[in-house]
Write a structure and sequence with these properties.
By secondary structure, the protein is of the alpha/beta class. The protein is 47% helix and 15% strand.
Length: 268
């Protein structure tokens, strides 16, 4: 990566970029600097077709313990825009999580330890979420006298209004098994070793999917429910025709006939 991030560690492995939230002293709580770093990272990778998969996790056994209240309070004067500093702080996080939601790469989250507040929100915008059975998920904002302002829409989209109400209005914690049952996460691991094995399995499967086809499919899925269906299907048909005439479909078809992996799925 070309940019140095104060609160993130990054490691490139072929088409996969591993991103680690790195504030272990606070269980990777979301500081303003971390929000800024994540915004910069999602901006940097948006047009990188050589990076197909993002793996997001936290350092030292915790994903993210939510917003760092002390840091946010002390950082009010560091927001570049004018206006209400509290509003600006909150919207910075909202813009970042929107970038995470809409990033063209496959976004995988590895969920261990604390998955709270903003960390819960990041889990809800990932394409694939892998949870440790002992991970603790929750929306503690209302117990602190604040509200989950920027993450609430993404939580509702992920698990539906009725379950979002229960979690947000009680502020209680749930563990990995219930997170999978509700659809916050997709698979459950009962040990660190099983978590890493499941991540390896997901990466192997993800690499079998054509890069551009995945990007176009993800963008199409994001449009569902936001546009009239007829126009959306017209656009999807055009994307399908473009794909059929493109190099990926030709390579994928040839690989199938020749009983081999397509080029994009071969070790890089």
């Amino acid at each position: 990566m070309e940019t140095h991030y104060t609160t993130l560690l990054t490691e490139r492995k072929g088409p996969v970029l591993h991103i680690t939230l790195n504030r272990p002293e606070s269980r990777n709580a979301m500081s303003l600097q971390m929000v800024i770093d994540l915004q910069a990272l999602f901006t940097e990778v948006a047009d990188r077709t050589d990076i197909r998969i993002l793996v997001l996790r936290g350092a030292n056994g915790h994903f993210c313990a939510g917003g760092d209240i002390k840091d946010m309070a002390s950082a009010r004067g560091r927001i570049p825009e004018g206006g209400n500093p509290i509003f600006d702080l909150n919207r910075h996080f909202g813009r970042m999580i929107t970038q995470a939601d809409q990033c063209p790469q496959l976004l995988i989250t590895v969920l261990e330890g604390a998955v709270l507040g903003g960390g819960f929100g990041l889990a809800c915008v990932s394409d694939v979420a892998i949870a440790h059975k002992d991970a603790q998920f929750g929306l503690p904002e209302t117990s602190l006298g604040v509200i989950p302002a920027q993450i609430a829409p993404f939580v509702v989209q992920r698990i539906g209004l009725t379950q979002a109400r229960r979690l947000a209005l009680l502020g209680n914690r749930i563990h990995g098994a219930e997170a999978v049952r509700l659809g916050i996460a997709h698979t459950l691991a009962d040990s660190t070793e099983a978590l890493e094995a499941e991540l390896s399995n997901v990466l192997t499967q993800a690499k079998k999917c054509a890069p551009n086809a995945n990007r176009v499919t993800k963008a199409l899925l994001h449009r569902v429910g936001h546009e009239p269906l007829s126009g959306l299907l017209d656009s999807a048909a055009q994307s399908f025709a473009d794909a059929i005439l493109g190099g990926e479909a030709q390579e994928g078809t040839m690989a199938f006939v020749q009983k081999r992996l397509p080029r994009w799925a071969q070790d890089e």
